[in-house]
Design goal:
single chain; alpha/beta; TIM Barrel; 2 domains; elongated
């Protein structure tokens, strides 16, 4: 009777433990599901991703492969550059075709003629493929840029109407949102044009006036988005430096304290915590704190992260070349400050090797780990001489386990020691067993060493 009662109690305890564990996983999954993990697919990335000048079948296949790649690394959202120079990657009678996407765009008076030559609608296909793979897609636009040195004048009503026209056309494709970047007012080297006036002119205007004109456009676009496609989001990705934002007319103080402007914001915090000539300024941490303190409303805040800088050498930001865990560390800090997600720049860096691949590997292990089912060793035993060393090799199942983290423990350190990286050293004559254990899931394997 006592044994039966004990058995029942054990079963209850196990069930409760399982329930608690399951609940913990559910909470973690729910948190992960609500976190936006995005990537910017810019017009300069079309070629690398395999979208430029492709047939529909090839465009579709390359796009599907790209989406699988970013999903593998934990991303669930893509900001697709649909209007970079007052052009279009969709069929439109009002905007010229994007030469970045199709070299055959030429100088046609309307983009529909150009896309007819292409034979399909790139944005329509893009949305279809994202829906298949359950990836959110936001249409990324440069609101004012006409060329690398010419911008539409934000003060003119015709400019805002031009932007609203593009927004309405793109929303008809069923995208999840409209996304603007940081190209607002710029320095004196840039010139302005009115949409109805092709003559370029320089402009001198106060910061408060800049903000007023841009805010008028932002509220107009916000209203257009909500009226045209209820449920769609509108967000902006300003520069990371708050002073630069304000100087360019991006009224971040208003956007993050009042309603009716944006649904989310993505400041581009493209620095490490080893910034400056001395490499000792924690600029990333300092800046993310500034943005956190600025938010006074319910606007979602994601952080723009500079994957493209990984491994590069910068004299004023030494952290990028020091380690391959910058992005991973920044994501962990972002979560600590209760940010709602992040976006990586740029899409082409998902196709590169070296340090960028290592950064992505480290990020994947944090946001979408692949847990080991089992491990085995390249060799189960070895005889070594006293004072000699041997490195234990681990074989993972599955092979793409991430992170691949194990601990090593010697049963008799007087006979053989082992380092944290699996290097065994013979100390004195005898036998010892090295236990190899994964940090995730606790999978184990044994290695026997004989010292002579």
């Amino acid at each position: 009777m006592k044994k039966r009662i004990l058995s029942v109690l054990i079963c209850i305890c196990l069930a409760l433990t399982g329930a608690i564990t399951a609940e913990a996983f559910i909470k973690e999954d729910a948190k992960a599901a609500s976190e936006v993990r995005a990537v910017w697919l810019a017009y300069v990335d079309y070629y690398k991703v395999g979208l430029r000048d492709k047939s529909e079948s090839k465009y579709r296949a390359n796009l599907a492969a790209f989406l699988k790649k970013i999903k593998y690394h934990g991303c669930n959202t893509v900001y697709f550059h649909v209007r970079s120079f007052d052009d279009a990657v969709w069929k439109s009678d009002k905007f010229k075709a994007s030469k970045s996407l199709m070299s055959r765009a030429g100088d046609y008076s309307t983009s529909r003629k150009a896309f007819d030559k292409l034979g399909y609608d790139p944005l329509k296909v893009f949305v279809e493929e994202c829906r298949k793979q359950r990836v959110s897609v936001h249409a990324w636009m440069n609101p004012y840029r006409v060329s690398s040195k010419i911008y539409y004048d934000p003060a003119q009503t015709s400019t805002t109407e031009r932007i609203k026209t593009a927004v309405r056309e793109v929303l008809s494709y069923g995208v999840d949102g409209i996304h603007f970047d940081d190209y607002f007012y710029h320095g004196s080297k840039y010139k302005m044009v009115g949409y109805t006036n092709d003559t370029a002119y320089k402009i001198s205007i106060t910061s408060s006036k800049k903000k007023a004109y841009i805010n008028k456009m932002v509220t107009a676009v916000y209203t257009t988005v909500k009226q045209t496609r209820p449920g769609a989001l509108f967000g902006i990705s300003p520069q990371g430096n708050l002073g630069n934002c304000r100087g360019a007319g991006a009224d971040i103080d208003t956007w993050l304290s009042k309603t009716g402007y944006i649904d989310y914001i993505i400041p581009q915090i493209y620095w490490t915590d080893n910034w400056g000539s001395s490499g000792k300024t924690p600029l990333f941490t300092r800046t993310i704190k500034q943005w956190k303190d600025l938010r006074k409303n319910s606007v979602k805040m994601y952080i723009g992260l500079a994957l493209y800088r990984s491994g590069a050498t910068y004299s004023d930001d030494k952290g990028w070349s020091k380690r391959v865990t910058n992005i991973r560390t920044q994501i962990k800090l972002m979560r600590k400050y209760k940010m709602n997600g992040y976006s990586l720049y740029a899409a082409s860096d998902f196709y590169r090797s070296g340090s960028k691949a290592k950064e992505l590997y480290k990020v994947k292990g944090l946001v979408k780990p692949v847990y080991p089912k089992s491990i085995k060793l390249k060799s189960k035993s070895k005889t070594i001489k006293r004072g000699k060393k041997y490195k234990i090799g681990v074989i993972w199942n599955p092979s793409d386990t991430n992170p691949k983290s194990v601990t090593f423990k010697s049963s008799n350190k007087k006979v053989a020691t082992v380092t944290s990286k699996g290097t065994v050293k013979g100390i004195k004559k005898g036998k010892a067993t090295i236990t190899v254990k994964t940090k995730n899931k606790g999978r184990t394997a044994k290695f026997k060493v004989k010292v002579k």
